[in-house]
Amino acid sequence: MLSFLVKRILATVPVLLIVAVLVFLLLRLTPGDPATIIAGDAASPENVAKIRENLGLSKPLLVQFGIWFGNLMAGDLGESYFFKMKVSTLIGQRIEPTLALSFCTIVIAVLVAVPLGVIAAWKQGGWLDRALMGFSVMGFSVPVFVLGYLLIWLVSLKLALLPVQGYQRIADGFGPFIRHLILPSITLSVIYIALIARVTRAAVQDVLSEDYIRTARAKGLPEVRVLVGHALANAAVPILTVIGIGIALLIGGVVVTESVYGIPGLGRLTVDAVLARDFPTIQGVILFFSFVYVLINLLVDLSYLVFDPRIRY
Amino acid sequence: MKRFIRFAALAVAGLGLAAGAWAQGSVLRVVPHSNLSILDPIWTTQYMARNHGYMIYDTLFGTDEKGQIKPQMVDTWEVSPDNRLWTFKLRKGLEFHDGRPVTGEDVIASLTRWGKRDAMGQKLFTFIARMDSPTPDSFRIFLSEACGIMLDALGKPSSNVPFIMPKRVADTPADKQIEDYVGSGPYVFKRDEFKPGDKAVYVKFAKYVPRKEPPSGSTGGKIAHIERVEWNLALRDAQAQVNALVKGEVDIIEQPAFESYAALSKDPNIQIVNSNNLGFQYMVRFNHLHPPFNNPKVRQAAIAAFNQEAFLKAQVGIKEYYKSCPSMFVCGTPYGSTKGSDLIGKSNMKKAQELLKASGYDGTTVVVMKPTDLASITKLPDVAAQLLRQAGFKVDLQSMDWNTLVGRRAKKDAPSAGGWNIFATAWVSPDIWNPLTKAAIGAAGEKSWFGWPTDAEIEKLRDQFAREVDMGKRKGLAEAIQARAFEVGTHAPVGEYFNPSAVRKGVTGVVFGPGNFYWNIKK
Questions:
Q1: In this complex, is the C-beta atom of A135 within 8 Å of any C-beta atom belonging to chain B?
Q2: Do A50 and A143 have their domain in common?
Q3: Residues in chain B within 8 Å Cβ distance of A153
Q4: Are residues A168 and A221 in the same domain?
Q5: Is residue A28 domain-shared with residue A109, that is, in the same domain?
Q6: Same domain, A162 and A119
Q7: How confident is the model at residue B66 (pLDDT cuts 50, 70, 90)?
Q8: Shared domain check, A226 and A145
Q9: Which residue of B has its CA nearest to A272?
Q10: Measured CA angle at B385 (ends B379, B389), to 5 deg
């Protein structure tokens, strides 16, 4: 177990290194010049050249990489070209909205999808099963921004129940915090509800045909206990896997949701940084996302131990 | 179950009411036209940095809503008979946010830094021999020879605006960003609350002494009636902005998308306010370095094909928000004129086809760059491409994001090697309303703005314009410059438009003028 953990943690180092090198090179190959963007439309070529020099962009590529990599090894993600702020500070400022949105989304998705999936498997072929499958197709098909606008129109503009945009930090009070998160979380969770519910249904269905389920029922166990204690517990591994993948995929999903609801999270920071060619910020955010991705995978692998005692590392 | 649903609805509504109450008060919530990323309005020409500058800094002179230069921090000034010595006295009571008085030394340091960055400032400093501050509340500018651009330069309303900063800040090298945001303007910047991409906050500067005159543009009494102004930098989606304004979660959208006006104007709680009454101008720029637009006759053929109405209808679409204007210096401003503008003013396709045939155009493909992510100009290249095709050009319309375009337009390579032939853009009026501020009319070859036209005649006339002190003669020179620019085909002005703000009904006192100003507003 310990050697597995050490191996997995050590394996993240080359992954992050490869990501670092690739991101650095890809960004330099992308058309667009940060100095020209910073200088503005009416700037003279001399001013643009001075800015480029100040940013270190006129140095050879290898030298630029060396400086950035050296700083990275010292734990410094660098300074944003635009905001005159450390990239780590920028990430720190934006991480709370994204974490809060992702957490609420996954909580809603799991709380809704797992029971739905179990019930659909239990009542296979019934109206609930068909309705769930129909909902799944819709959940996969409706783009996040369409659903977001529809919810805003209904819940915020027509019923005036919730705000249409923005984010309130949890430190400013739990009420405003949760009010601003309800709609974005529901919007973003629909696709994950569809995904997790389908996988849960399929996994539980498989398990329900096993001999030990028949035995449990023959012993006279209540159906809820059969479903939760025996079927769901044995179907946990694929469900956990898809939840893990879902969390990783959220990184992409939050970008659109944050735009529709005006939430200043990491998704918006990434889009702004890419459009502005803010190389240090893009590099920092992608490295951070890569780290989170690797960490989630590790946690999912470790969670298998809890749900399936047959698995040993 | 019913009880649960009722409880949930009440809980959510209760939370809504609590937040509604919290949202009231003397706070003006503004959705600016873009993100505020750079806080040094001298280091960059970005309009957001300029608008930020207007919140926290003051200027020596300003420009009113009619384009007239008027004193702002300056109380009185004198000019020597030979126009070579200018003496300025500052108003009483001018104070920086840190409590220090504004002095002539602060002014000199600020102008010096600005003169190293701004194109017009650089021009002005070619005439300046030295500056001094004989008393704390005055400063003098000694010129090596008379020039006619002193007040135009000191009162210029758009980027780079000569904002006055404390000397310790203005002493920052011009090629480095400032890191101290103390000004003497009507609002104080809350550095501790600034979160790029989230919000920028300004609070009223209680010790600001406004002028007695009514506010107009960047001149007159800058009275901050609102205690706190918040710029919402996270709300960038056009529909989300409309939703927030309709719901009353924000008070002003600076520049809504054109598609949003229909919905906004139907809401009884929203007013459309065209505060920037001189508006913006669209422009199509040619690359003069490469075929086919290295040939002036080909450029003229293209200009003749460019029907302004076609561009404006496609891009703006709302008749009352656009107008055709053949002037390169903005219609309705002191140098606005129709001189030499026949080709664009009376654009017709037959003439364009004839001119193209006579030019010897050999069928070279024209690379037109189209920005896909800038809603305010994204349709212009499509129109340009279609009109060029109709005139007989072979066109390759290439889509990219705006910042790729910005990087690519700086390349002087041939279009086939990653360069370009045409791009379109928009300018706010003050940036282009005289021959010195208008970057696109400069014709100093590879030293001039992207597109790099070369014409000694234009440069000679611009130089004369800078030196001329008589307004009548300056107008004549501006007309001559425009006529020559059309002859050379530096670029094609393709119409003017307005992008009015959308404002909640309870918000009054929006200042009219060439920019977005947040003093005088009541809520």
A1: no
A2: no
A3: 243
A4: yes
A5: no
A6: yes
A7: confident
A8: yes
A9: B197
A10: 150
To the nearest 5 percent, what fractions of chain B are helix, strand and coil?
A: 35, 20, 45
| Residue A227 neighbours by CB under 8 Å, 6+ apart | A118, A122, A204
One-letter amino acid identity for B280? F
CB B53 within 8 A of CB B113: no
DSSP SS3 for B114: helix
C-alpha distance from A306 to closest chain B C-alpha (Å): 34
Give me the residue from B197, B232, B402 closest to A268, CB to CB. B197
Residue B180 identity (one-letter amino acid): D
Residue-wise pLDDT for A253-278, tens only, equals 788 899 899 999 998 888 888 888 88
Per-residue pLDDT, B69: 93
The pLDDT score that the predictor gives to residue B17 is 42
pLDDT at A46 over 50: yes
Burial zone of A252 (CB within 10 Å; 0-12 exposed, 13-18 middle, 19+ buried): exposed
DSSP A142-159: S-HHHHHHHHIIIIIIIS
Q: How far is A158 from chain B (nearest CA, A)?
A: 10
Would you say residue A84 lies in a domain? no
Q: Which of B165, B150, B182 is nearest to B109 (CA)?
A: B165
A contacts of B425 (beta carbons < 8 Å): 41
Is residue A89 in a domain? no
* pLDDT, position A42: 67
Q: Which residue of A has its CA nearest to B446?
A: A45
Instruction: For residues A17 and A113, state if they share a domain.
Output: no
Position A1 pLDDT exceeds 80? no
DSSP-derived letter for residue A79 is B
Partner residue facing A37 (CB), from B9, B246, B406: B406
Arithmetic mean of pLDDT, B242-266: 94
Distance CA A30, CA A40 (A): 19
Domain edge (last residue) among A40, A73, A106? A73
Q: What's the rounded Cα separation, in Å, for the pair B402 and B405?
A: 5
Residue B13: pLDDT band (50, 70, 90) is very low
- pTM for this structure? 0.85
Asked if residue A313 is part of any domain, the answer here is no
Does residue A255 belong to any structural domain of this protein?
yes
Q: Which of A15, A42, A73 is the last residue of a domain?
A: A73
Among candidate residues A255, A28, A294, A246, the one with its CA nearest the CA of residue A139: A246
* ipTM for this prediction: 0.80
Given this model, what pLDDT does residue B2 score? 47
Q: Which two tokens stand for residue B194?
A: 């600034």
SS in 3 state form for A13-39?
HHHHHHHHHHHHHHHHHCCCCHHHHHH
C-alpha distances in Å from residue B391, one per residue of B129, B353, B358, B394: 52, 5, 12, 9
Q: In this model, does residue A300 exceed pLDDT 90?
A: no
Tokens 């001559």 sit on residue? B480
Look up the CATH number of the domain holding residue A186: 1.10.3720.10
> Are A265 and A196 in the same domain?
yes
Nearest CA in chain B to A256: B237
CA–CA distances in Å: residue B435 to residues A234, B425, B468:
78, 18, 12
Beta bridge partners of residue B88, listed in sequence order: B77, B139
Q: How far apart are CA A278 and CA B78, in angstroms?
A: 47
Question: Alpha-carbon distance B124 to B128, whole Å?
Answer: 7
- Give the residue numbers spanning the domain of A287: 95-307
| DSSP, res B29 | E
- Number of domains composing chain A: 2
Contacts of B249 in chain A (CB under 8 A): 163-166
Q: How far apart are CA A307 and CA B125, in angstroms?
A: 76
> How many residue contacts between A and B have a Cβ separation below 8 Å?
162
The answer to whether residues A149 and A240 belong to one domain is yes
Pick B431's closest partner by Cβ from A31, A42, A178: A42
Average pLDDT over chain A, rounded to an integer: 88
Tokens of A286: 């992608």
What number of residues does chain A have?
A: 313
